[in-house]
User: Which sequence fits this backbone?
């Protein structure tokens, strides 16, 4: 059974204070690890897909990295508009994804 | 614009009534999914479909039903058998092309049953 654990559950940062979110996973035959951003009351917004250990993807202040056991979402010099819940998911066999419970990020001005 | 639409955004029903949530996509995706999200929890898969006229149960299918008569549409019915139906419901779709796995989500429907 695929499993995803995200930490911390909640993270509060000051504007400009860089940090990282963690996503630990167990999956039989990883066919993709996905990061999403979700604002309150809205559907998740796709950010990144990572397929193999060592792969990195960047978008503005966000950078996602992948090892064989976990993924990190690095946030550099965050702004208040980066406040959201960040979800991690993995795809094993088939087309279904298994999601973690998310990290709620708050960036204070 | 290509995307996924869900309607309505908010839905209120009395206990014991069935209710159907709409999901339409114009992304030409083969696969569609229904998730449930409760406060402080991740997304839990209810049903998914990879082809028209075929669908599979997810992890929490009891009390729900779906149909897939058209590629673009995947409605979800929350039946009176669902013991705790109040939740945020999300529809998603994805291509089944090899090497592409991300799912794209609609805006969600918040269902309240009293």
Assistant:
């Amino acid at each position: 059974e695929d499993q995803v654990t995200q930490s911390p559950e909640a993270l509060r940062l000051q504007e400009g204070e860089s940090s990282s979110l963690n996503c630990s996973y167990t999956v039989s035959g990883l066919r993709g690890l996905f990061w999403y951003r979700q604002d309150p009351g809205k559907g998740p917004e796709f950010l990144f897909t990572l397929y193999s250990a060592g792969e990195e993807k960047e978008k503005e202040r966000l950078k996602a990295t992948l090892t064989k056991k976990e993924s990190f979402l690095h946030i550099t010099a965050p702004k208040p508009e980066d406040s959201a819940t960040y979800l991690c998911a993995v795809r094993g066999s088939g087309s279904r994804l298994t999601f973690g419970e998310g990290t709620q990020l708050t960036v204070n001005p | 614009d290509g995307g996924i639409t869900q309607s309505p955004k908010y839905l209120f029903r009395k206990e014991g009534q069935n209710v159907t949530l709409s999901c339409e996509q114009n992304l030409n995706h083969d696969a569609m999914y229904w998730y449930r999200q409760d406060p402080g929890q991740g997304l839990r898969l209810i049903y998914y479909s990879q082809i028209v006229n075929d669908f599979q149960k997810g992890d929490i299918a009891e009390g729900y039903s779906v149909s897939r008569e058209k590629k673009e549409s995947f409605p979800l019915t929350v039946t009176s058998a669902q013991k705790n139906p109040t939740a945020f419901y999300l529809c998603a779709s994805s291509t089944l092309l090899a090497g592409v796995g991300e799912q794209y989500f609609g805006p969600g429907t918040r269902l309240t049953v009293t």
In short: The radius of gyration of chain A is 13 Å. Chain A has a mean pLDDT of 95.
